[in-house]
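Exodeoxyribonuclease 7 large subunit, Modicisalibacter zincidurans. Tokens?
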Amino acid sequence: MDDTGTPTLSVSELNRQARMLLERGFGDCWVEGEVSSVARPASGHVYFTLKDDRAQLKCALFRNRARFTSPLDNGDQVRLRGKVSIFEPRGDYQMIVEAVQPAGQGALLAAFERLKRQLDAQGVFANQRPLPCPPRHLAVISSASGAAIRDVLAVLQARWPLVPVTLLPVPVQGKEAVPAIIRAIAIANRLAEMPNGPGFDALLVTRGGGSLEDLWAFNDEHLARAIFHSRLPVMAAVGHEVDTTLADFAADVRAPTPSAAAEQLVPDQRDLRRRLQDAERRLLRCQRSRLEREAQCLDHLRARLRHPGERLTQQRQRLAQLESRLSRVMDQRLRGERMRVEHLQRRLAGYDPSNRVARARGQLDGLQQRLYQAMPRQLEQRRQRLGALARELQAVSPLAVLGRGYAILEDDERQVVRSAADTQPGQMLTARLGEGRLRLEVKRRLHKG
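Tokens:
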């Protein structure tokens, strides 16, 4: 930074920022002028200057674009499409060219854009049907003597020679091109619908590169509509990668070049061969592995397999062994049961009922004798105790008191009358005496004293 705080840039940083500002600020643009100072180094790039009567602009047309563009000569009037940039190492202000057109084509391009918008609004560019890959029979509409059909056939022969191809030759530029191509599309559709026809299932419309005027037949409105209405799916490959026509937009699929169209239409037999070879190798490996596993399984089963006679002999031996074991077990079981029966018999003899009855009878006789001896003693003791209790009871019994001349008064509810105040004159009372009862009536109550 300087004393004011402004950052100081390096030259490379300044050029980089300037380039970014130019590229973002302009983007793609068109420039028209005269070509001069054309240079073609060994790299294949083309460097030249575009100028008018007051200024000039350095331009760079890189190799990948230059090979699809007509050669430039000093003095040519051209329209360039590209983006403005800076070559940072030298700080050169320049234009990176994407497309080159001869000057004077502005009216054609304007008409092209108007017709493109009109057809797009009408849905002519809406077809997106898939093309069969590979097609059973391919119809190609192109010039019989052009480089396009040679490129297509060469690619098809290299990639998929099995596909049959029928060429419907037409002129691809000039006044006769449009009606001829439209007729060829109609013929291909009619032949495809015939029961015994060639069986077309895909249609390729193609030609090689050229100027805008050379390709103008493929910008015809009627041709675009014919492609749109084709019942066969259509692939268009007109011109080079940078060329775009209305036929390309109306087709179901667009290819950048005739060779690219052929590559998209069919698979590569070399890829399929490699895939088949890989599948064959995998199949052989799986087959060998399976055979080895099955052989091991067979060996295992063979080792386990025995002759029926040998198997019967083994079973007889096993049966004899089991019979011998059964006999030994039965003998042991019988001896054990005999010993158990003898033991139970001895125990049963010890529990003979007659012996137990004899012992019980002796015990019963003894108990009976003791009972006969104890009963008189118990009766006498109980009699004496009863007499004593009777005397004690007589001593405290109310009846003894009544025997001495006293009486107990009871009302009609058999409640004892303890006070004269508990009675009323005329009330009936019962007097309980030592012997008998009296029925009394209260005449009057006397006060104490």
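The chain is about 50% helix and 20% strand.
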